[in-house]
Amino acid sequence: MKVKRFSSMDDLYTHAVATILEAKNNGATTFGLATGGTMEPLYAKICQTDVDFSHCISFNLDEYVGLEATHKQSYAYYMNKHLFNQKPFLASYLPDGLAVDPLVETARYEGLLQQYPLDFQLLGIGQNGHIGFNEPGTPFASLTHLVTLEESTRQANARFFSSIDEVPTQAYTMGIQSIMRAKCILLLAVGEAKREVLERLLSSDYTEDVPATALSKHPNVIVLTDLQEEENKI
């Protein structure tokens, strides 16, 4: 696992863009994408480049259950707003938040992921260690599945909604095994609130209580963070 620390947020996101473009220039055509506040500056910088994704395929990590694609808080809407409208892909796949049968929908999405193996996966990390919406306790062998969101996750995302009551209680997410199949993984850990969980990840823990620690077994993970190592730590 390669860890790079930046004192400048602009430098961090510039490096993240360069990492993605390097992967594409080296032949990556299938990209796993993430959402959330951490990714907005990244997508803004990508849109300022001349990169062409029109021959590439994208898969999103997750989608809320119960939100139509046109809902302003759906991840489909987010992706269109922040990336796809400016940088369209040949095909962009997300779970269907309005799917009638969760088992059918998760099987459909997992089937697509296996049909088009991921060359590159972009990740954020939750304060409780979730990647995608894989909450603590999710088996490392999990594939795409329906998840009930922890209250801490809903609280963390409530800032995007009018109230906590509007935050969905369930979501579809790539499983941990689905994520781990990617050839290269880029994880962005930004902000002091992520310090504790980042330390757990970097301490070589390997526990389903902290889903992100599955990444310690992946051969090609790059971590970019603005968090500096603490001095005089006992």
Describe what you observe in this structure.
With 234 residues, the protein is of the alpha/beta class. Helices cover 29% and strands 18% of the residues. The protein has helices at residues 9-25, 40-47, 75-84, 102-115, 151-157, 176-180, 195-202, and strands at 2-5, 30-33, 57-60, 62-64, 91-93, 120-123, 145-148, 170-173, 184-189, 221-225. The strands form two sheets. It has a seven-stranded parallel beta sheet, covered by helices on one side. A three-stranded antiparallel beta sheet has the order 4-8-7, covered by helices on one side. β9 (184-189), α7 and β10 form a beta-alpha-beta unit. α1 (9-25) crosses α2. The protein is globular. The mean pLDDT is 94.
Major sheet strand order: 1-10-9-6-2-3-5
Give the radius of gyration.
17 Å
Percentage of residues in helical conformation = 25-40%
What is the tally of beta strands? 10
Instruction: State the end-to-end distance.
Output: 23 Å
| Topology order in helix (H) and strand (E) letters | EHEHEEHEHEEHEHEHE
Mean pLDDT: 94
Question: Strand pairing plus helix content: what structural class?
Answer: alpha/beta
Largest sheet: 7 strands, parallel
Query: Which strand-content bin applies to the residues?
Result: 15-25%
Helical region count? 7
Principal-axis shape:
globular
Segments where pLDDT lies below 50 for 5+ residues?
none
